[in-house]
Every structure is written in structure tokens, then in C-alpha cells.
Amino acid sequence: MFTFATVSPHPVARAAILDPRADPRADLAAPVTTPPGAYAWKIISLLPLHDLAFPPGRFLADNAALYSAMLALLAVGSFLLARARVHHHQAELQSEHERRFRRTLEDIDLAVKEDITERKRLEQEVATRNRELAPRPWPRWAAWRP
Predict the structure, then answer these.
(1) Which of 34, 56, 68, 69 has the fewest CB atoms within 10 Å, measured from its CB?
(2) Is the Cβ–Cβ distance between 1 and 49 less than 8 Å?
């Protein structure tokens, strides 16, 4: 297959001289008009048909190593990210468990302290009642004698 293009270097060179920062490729899409007395270049290229008939499996065969390496890299990265998330989740669960356990121990300790306080109060109350209800010795003059 033959392809060709007509290139006129004068307008591109003139634009480059007038504005050096301009992109010289910007005018390539414009239709070529050759000013009188200027010359134009004809560029002709040959593209063999066997290069056009690229077999579909050849691209995969040529780039299999690259795609395999990229897939392996993605797999390793995904594995490391998933493992980090699992460890983070387990650490959060462990922290929550420890928090609940500590709270339970504090509640038990408070309950024991309250129980001890209540027990002491009840013991004092019982001792007071026992003293109030304990039999008093009779006075000697009121003692009964047979």
C-alpha cells in the first residue's frame, strides 16, 4: 500500500520564524497551498500488506510478559492491601473487646465495693438492734425470790 503527502516547508518555516513558540504541527492539517515560485515536497511511503495484516494473537504473545508482570504486581498489591485491612479490623475488634472487658471489671469492682458498703451498714444496723433488744439485767430489788 502506497501513501503520500504533499508538504510545503515555506509556510511552516515562515510561521516558525515569526512565532518561535508556536507549534509547527498546527498547520499540517490545513490544505496545502503552494505560493507561486515556491516548491513543495512529495513524501511517498510504502507499507507492506503483511504489516497491515497483524495477527490478533501476535500482540498478546509479544506482550504476555509485560501483562503478566502487571497482573502479578496488582495481585500482590491487592493481597497486601486486603491483609492490612483485615489486621486493622482485627485490631479494632480487639480494642473494643478490651474496652468492654475493662468496663465490666470496673462495674464488678463498683458492685463489690457497694456490696461491702451495704454489708457493713447492715451489720451495724443489726448490732444496734441487738443491743436495743438484748435483755437487760433486772435490778436487784425486782428480782423474784421463791
Answers:
(1) 56
(2) yes
CA distance 27 to 15: 9
Query: What confidence tens digit (pLDDT) does each residue in 5-22 have?
Result: 877 777 767 777 777 676
| Secondary structure in 3-state letters for 12-35 | HHHHHHHCCCCCHHHHCCCCCCCC
**Cell numbers that stand for 30 in this block:** 490545513
| 8: Cβ contacts below 8 Å, ≥ 6 apart | 32, 33, 34, 38, 39, 40, 41
User: Has residue 138 got a pLDDT over 70?
Assistant: no
- Return the residue matching grid coordinates 439485767: 137
Distance CA 28, CA 20 (A): 16
Helix H or strand E encompassing 3: strand 2-7
Strand partners, 2: 46
Q: What pLDDT, on the 0 to 100 scale, is given for residue 28?
A: 54
